[in-house]
Amino acid sequence: MNNNLYEHGTLAMLMAGKLSGTITLAELLKHGEHGIGTLDGLDGEVIILDNEVYQADETGTVNRITDMDATLPFASVHHAMNETTLTLPKADFNILNDTIVKEHNFKNVFVATRFHGVFEAVKVRVAPKQTRPYPGLLEIASNQPIFEKQNVSGTVIGYFAPELFGTVTAGGWHLHFLSDDRQFGGHLLDFVGTNLTGTYQIFDSLEQHFPVSDPEFRAYDIDLASLQADIQAAEGH
Amino acid sequence: MNNNLYEHGTLAMLMAGKLSGTITLAELLKHGEHGIGTLDGLDGEVIILDNEVYQADETGTVNRITDMDATLPFASVHHAMNETTLTLPKADFNILNDTIVKEHNFKNVFVATRFHGVFEAVKVRVAPKQTRPYPGLLEIASNQPIFEKQNVSGTVIGYFAPELFGTVTAGGWHLHFLSDDRQFGGHLLDFVGTNLTGTYQIFDSLEQHFPVSDPEFRAYDIDLASLQADIQAAEGH
């Protein structure tokens, strides 16, 4: 077992509207029992904790996914190992960016994090399922449901990626949230938490997996010149 | 054994002058018996064929490297598998770019190639060994020895990388040459060959490995805004 971040698909691919699922959940889970992703057609936000797979959907509902034939266009998973304890007396994105990244010198490496506790406020967005012909992520991003909750107990899970990889995957933090009661979750836009505890794990490698047998993947075009700006517009936290 | 391209270090790192060796040859060869790279301090052009390691140095000499403790800042290797035969009645960079990439639809995938035969003309450059404080690749590129040879029998080995990864590694073709008599080699700048035969191999994944324990790697800064243009100026083929 390697200390690798396994990623299937690329952010560039989603930006270009290549949204069809190209890896099964069964195959994905071979590469990690923790992770995040989205289902076929950009259907919601996937959270994987200890091999349990959840999907926050666009209605604000969280579903347990047990169909191992379900497919994903984009997902990141890892095996928990070499973890270091992370204690966050107070946490929000500013603290993650300014304190945690700098203190632990994350900027040039891929890192997983997972932390748990009571959150005073959590704001998430959920990707709404698309139908063919698929639009690109930039178009979808302007019209995504946002959900908020106060005083919610839950887990933040996700990754930090170096800026250099900010077109291959989401640069900086890419985090999802799932409440302890499995009723609330999504792609983390904003949060405030106190006395959170968890772990981080610095990866030796990024294992970037491609759907090489998928004709649509082989044929898709990207405009590198506009990609960076489009991602900035589409993503943010 | 996975059908992965294993890459240690990044092109961005070299551009920023992070040139010290961070993986041993012994460790590198665990991940592939074929590949290319450069030695500690950007010392020459490494060619690995069937576990035999050669270095073309800045004097135009080719050395066999048997010291498994030698280190490399940047290298790409793979295990030969799933290979497809490649026949090139005539070959040069235009044919590789215009015919081969398009015919086999390589643009979005990582590919290895290896082809052999008599080359009418071969033009190579060789990175000259640097000393600390290391300059960046852009500065070094303006002053690199170039060698040419006619009617030479040898092997071209290297990789095609999608444009999206053109700051992580060299985008497009990155090829090295080694003559059959092991007397001539380097980083391929130009070539003409006829009736060449070889193979190509499409990878499922890029396994991008980082020297995460190296303080210089953890600390180095890149200017993403200028990186693309600097690489263009420094690289070419």
From TrEMBL, chains A, B:
<keyword id="KW-0456">Lyase</keyword>
<dbReference type="Pfam" id="PF03306">
    <property type="entry name" value="AAL_decarboxy"/>
</dbReference>
<dbReference type="GO" id="GO:0047605">
    <property type="term" value="F:acetolactate decarboxylase activity"/>
</dbReference>
<protein>
    <recommendedName>
        <fullName>Alpha-acetolactate decarboxylase</fullName>
        <ecNumber>4.1.1.5</ecNumber>
    </recommendedName>
</protein>
<comment type="pathway">
    <text>Polyol metabolism; (R,R)-butane-2,3-diol biosynthesis; (R,R)-butane-2,3-diol from pyruvate: step 2/3.</text>
</comment>
<dbReference type="InterPro" id="IPR005128">
    <property type="entry name" value="Acetolactate_a_deCO2ase"/>
</dbReference>
<keyword id="KW-0005">Acetoin biosynthesis</keyword>
<keyword id="KW-0210">Decarboxylase</keyword>
<comment type="similarity">
    <text>Belongs to the alpha-acetolactate decarboxylase family.</text>
</comment>
